[in-house]
């Protein structure tokens, strides 16, 4: 398990948790309002993905109050199952990878993802929009 412990000055900030449940591992990240990574986790699931997610979340919530978490979403092959069980949002992994890449590395145009069961090639276009979105989240 890999993790980064939050700094003292960030204890009062809103936090968001993203969980990727793949066929071989569970990944989780805790970010702050400024999209800074506070913690990151990578744990092999050994075919027990939901049990592994519970262990990771318990670890996170031992340090972070659930009241400080303003959003949580899941992706990956087990993400829909977790979302159905917990009521959190499910986001398609290609959408999640594309959005994260455009936010954290806007200069990147190609993403190659090699997972436990499949591989993906994602080609990203440069965002030439005004930065504004309509009610459905589409650029205007």
Automatic annotation (TrEMBL):
In terms of Pfam families, this protein maps to:
BcrAD_BadFG (PF01869)
Task: Using the record's annotation, list all stretches that form the ATPase BadF/BadG/BcrA/BcrD type domain.
Answer: 17-128
The protein's name is ATPase BadF/BadG/BcrA/BcrD type domain-containing protein
- The source organism is marine sediment metagenome
